[in-house]
Design a protein that fits this description.
Strand order of the largest sheet: 3-2-1-4-5
CATH architecture of the largest domain: Beta Barrel
CATH topology of the largest domain: OB fold (Dihydrolipoamide Acetyltransferase, E2P)
Radius of gyration: 38 Å
Mean pLDDT: 76
Number of strands: 26
Strand content: 25-35%
Distance between the termini: 142 Å
Helix content: 10-25%
Structural class: alpha+beta
Number of helices: 7
Low-confidence stretches: 1-14, 19-41, 381-421, 521-536
CATH class of the largest domain: Mainly Beta
Number of domains: 6
Oligomer: single chain
């Protein structure tokens, strides 16, 4: 008797081979479904949609891109050419583009709408779509007018305001006449009779893309080729390729630079090194650059002179202590006031002027501190006021003691021998030194600090200024005046903040301490009668 299976009984499990095959088919189907869901729909793209794909073929006119659809998309080859007309991509490279339109040749990808070859109506339709999708268009500059550029975009005329021509103010808009440029349509009104364009918006987007790539490798010590974009009194701004850094005037060259325009011009390509990365008070990124860091350091490669040599230098700066003379590119030495002339002078400006050539003798070289002591007195028998005596350039050993004694003997009767050049002091908070006013600003004074080095400067803010009479007014102060100041702060960038008030406060505290000590004998105030008696 045949036994029928129970209807409620579960069927027996299939064999292991069938289970494996079914599982594999299920997994394969799931993978295909997931992969298909990731593919963009051929007819689901809208103009301006971002598309990322891989280059599969490059022809004479087009680049074919696999972006995950059933067929490859294409982009004009000119989208990927450098300034020399060479392709910037190869098969296998990933690219990011935008969907432009559907064409009989397939999906058109790119960064902008090309020139329309159809009717004016077709051009208007292209501009409308470009405006809605915010895709750049290509146009030819026809002429300039009072407010900007007139541009022909496939037969339609648009207007690019002067402020929208470039990332910075455009001083010569006529230079664009006849050139082909990319523009973003920012306004499309009155059925295409009012078309406003912006080249600046396109450049800004390209800049942000380049900046993102630069930031991936940006680090202190990296060297880049940058383009000078702006010149300022304090330095130059340099574009590293979408991101700008500041090249301070002190970092342009080891030689002293009076004006950035003496060495640089806008548009010039220069090698620069990133020397500092930080952020400002509002969180903005700040990139400090240097050209000087890429120049040979004479202190490491070897100075072109030795102790005892007589050489020609250039007077760079005058202080009450002496004159700083450039004796090699980036190397300055100090001619102490006592080593300028055989006769006594009260200020170097009595006989020297900045920019003047001067024959000097190398008295000493401190290689550890990068200091050079010089003498003009030992080269010239007598330095007439405002002129320098001619002396041949030569190398000779240092003067012997008898020769030095003979030099002292030329001093006027009763005049003391000249003091030795001072030793430089390292800048540190709390140090009291003398500063020479080199700049007067509404907010304070810039002071040269010659005791700390030839190029050491600090800022005495108006809030920290206090004259001997107690006044805080900067009126009447002139360049060249000498003030006693104290270093109260040195920031991470080495900027020095100075104060006169701190010196006054310390002096007042000392005077009070001395007074109290006298009043009480042991530092106590004593009685009111004692204080009154002492004050009398």
């Amino acid at each position: 008797m045949e036994t029928k299976p129970d209807q409620n009984q579960e069927p027996e499990a299939s064999n292991s081979g069938e289970e494996t095959r079914d599982a594999a088919e299920e997994t394969s189907f799931a993978d295909l479904f997931e992969a298909q869901s990731r593919r963009p729909k051929d007819r689901g793209l809208q103009p301006g949609d971002p598309v990322r794909g891989r280059v599969v073929l490059i022809s004479r006119e087009a680049v074919f891109i696999d972006y995950g659809a059933k067929a490859e998309g294409w982009a004009a080859l000119e989208e990927f050419l450098d300034a020399d007309g060479q392709p910037t991509v190869s098969p296998g490279d990933e690219v990011s583009l935008k969907f432009i339109e559907y064409t009989p040749s397939g999906v058109h990808l790119g960064t902008s709408f090309g020139k329309s070859r159809g009717s004016s109506a077709a051009a208007q339709e292209m501009l409308r779509r470009a405006y809605e999708a915010q895709i750049p268009v290509e146009g030819t500059v026809l002429k300039t007018n009072k407010g900007g550029l007139e541009v022909n975009v496939s037969g339609a005329v648009g207007f690019c305001p002067l402020s929208q021509i470039d990332l910075y103010y455009c001083q010569n808009p006529e230079a664009y006449i006849g050139t082909s440029q990319k523009f973003l349509v920012t306004e499309f009104e009155e059925e295409g009779r009012r078309i406003i364009l912006s080249r600046k918006a396109v450049l800004q987007e390209e800049k942000e893309v380049r900046a993102a790539k630069i930031r991936e490798t940006l680090a202190e010590g990296q060297v880049y080729e940058g383009t000078v974009t702006r010149l300022m009194p304090f330095g130059a701004f340099v574009d590293l390729g979408g991101i700008e850094g500041l090249l301070h005037i002190s970092e342009i060259s080891r030689e002293q630079v009076a004006e950035p325009g003496d060495r640089l011009k806008v548009g010039q390509v220069v090698p620069v090194q990133v020397i500092r990365l930080d952020r400002g008070e509002k969180g903005e990124e700040r990139i400090s650059l240097s050209m000087k860091a890429l120049e040979p350091d004479p202190w490491q490669t070897g100075l072109p002179f030795a102790e005892g040599d007589t050489i020609e230098g250039l007077v760079r700066n005058l202080t009450t202590y002496g004159a700083f003379v450039e004796v090699a590119p980036g190397v300055e030495g100090l001619v102490h006031i006592s080593e300028i002339s055989h006769r006594r002078i009260t200020h170097p400006q009595q006989v020297l002027t900045p920019g003047q050539k001067l024959m000097v003798k190398v008295l000493g070289i401190d290689r550890e501190k990068h200091r050079v002591a010089l003498s003009a007195r030992e080269v010239a028998d007598l330095l007439e006021e405002g002129t320098t005596a001619e002396a041949p350039v030569s190398t000779r050993p240092a003067e012997t003691e008898p020769a030095a004694a003979a030099a002292v003997a030329t001093l006027a009767e009763g005049e003391a021998p000249a003091a030795k050049p001072p030793q430089y002091k390292p800048p540190k908070v709390g140090l009291i030194t003398r500063g020479v006013v080199s700049g007067v600003k509404p907010y304070g004074l810039f002071l040269d600090l010659p005791e700390l080095g030839s190029r050491t400067r600090g800022l005495l803010h108006q809030s920290e200024f206090q004259s001997a009479s107690g006044s805080s007014s900067l009126k009447g102060l002139k360049e060249g005046e000498t003030l006693e100041v104290q270093i109260i702060r040195i920031d991470d960038q080495g900027k020095i903040s100075l104060s006169q008030k701190s010196i006054r406060e310390q002096q007042e505290a000392s005077d009070l301490k001395n007074y109290l000590g006298q009043a009480g004998g042991s530092g106590k105030l004593g009685t009111m009668a004692d204080l009154f008696k002492n004050s009398k």
